[in-house]
Amino acid sequence: MTLRWRLTLLYSGLSGVLLALTFILTYIGVQNTLRGAFENDLLNARKQAIEIMQGSTNYIPTAENWNGFSRDAYGQVVQYNASSFVANEFLQLSQPTSSRNSNLVFKDADIVVSPEAWQQVERRGEYRGNGFLSASKEPVQVWVIRFETIQTGGLSIIPIILVAKSFTDINNVLETLQRALFFVALIGIIVAGFASYFAAKSALSPITSVRDAAAAIGGRNLNLRVPEQGTRDEVDDLAKTLNAMLERLESSFETQRRFTADASHELRTPVTAIAGHASYLIRRTNPNETQKESLEAITNLSTRLGRLIGDLLDLARADAGFGVEHAPTNLMSLAEDVHLEVVAIAGNTEIELLGDSSLKAQLDPNRVRQVIRNLVQNALKAGSSQITVEIAKEDNLARVSVQDNGSGIAAEHLSKLFDRFYRVDTSRDRAAGGSGLGLSIVKWIVEAHNGSIAVSSEIGVGTRFDVRFPIGENIVPSIISQTNK
Could you tell me if 376 and 334 lie in one domain? Predict the structure, then answer.
């Protein structure tokens, strides 16, 4: 997961947590406010009902007495026969007198409480708790109050009032509030997510520009620098640090390049002289077999060292940014030149030239000849018995393919094949005089022509290199097939 997405998730999560805490506190606050108002309304209804009862004759209120009673509450008056008032049997007691205002009881329903509530009324004279309306089963908060027993009509009457208030309105408001807060929170999190994404993108854009600039810097363009923002923040410090590091690398690399070039120049003359003197002694002094073997070894090692020095000089030129010349070049002619150069050392290996004999491109003939030579020589070192060099045109590109049937290259080596001094088989390359620089030089020459090189290989089957150059002009193809040993 990228840093941008991690920051987006982090900021969105924090926003979500803050919104959730805010909405939870809001919900609790509204809930407490509504419940506080509910309690006040119930207390006021209780107080009003008691006043009505106390102002009534023998605790028997009339409908007129209840006209001013709170319309938000339910009220009910029940009078029990005290002679039949037995604990735990209140629901079965007779009700000789029951005065109830129909406007104050929902659908003229009774306010119902549990038997345990009636037991508490008997013991304490009052009950506060839950109940419901008999008709609708609507839950209500109930206050049951028992008054002193009175004597009327020869009976002992126990007046009781029940005052109730419904939870429905509060529950509806809280449910609506829950839904509203949920959707607001959801929308808030989505908006916070988008805002966090674009904020992270904006904050990281300087880092992205530094990354892109740093990715474009290689060994051949160490003179480039990453952009400094001038903002005096951490990103600006990072850019300055990278530029300082690049300056040190450029200085070190330039010192190394100059040393390589100078050392190669200085070594070339004595090495050439050593090879010349050894050849002269072989030809002119009639050495014995032991001396001749030593002189031939000196000659071979000098030749190998001369090739290595030449490769190092080529790489020094590449690092220095030296370009290549461009002239109309016949690719088949270059392949034929290489064939003539290597045929003497090819042994029984069959080298076949195929393709367009008149295909030309704007190339440096000496450098492209070096590319073909290196690829063919690598195929010979791989123990190939058949090498095919094909020249062909693909769209506006000239393709040079070198296919062999050698031992092949394992897949894990292919990505490093063009690295300097990298050798797939170290022992074999040393025996064959390889230095691990040939393919690095090939890649440099190809890229200097704005071309590309690709390799594919299979163990036991062979290896194929495909080099493509911009063609630069249209040539009528003439297909030939030439085979030589």
Answer: yes
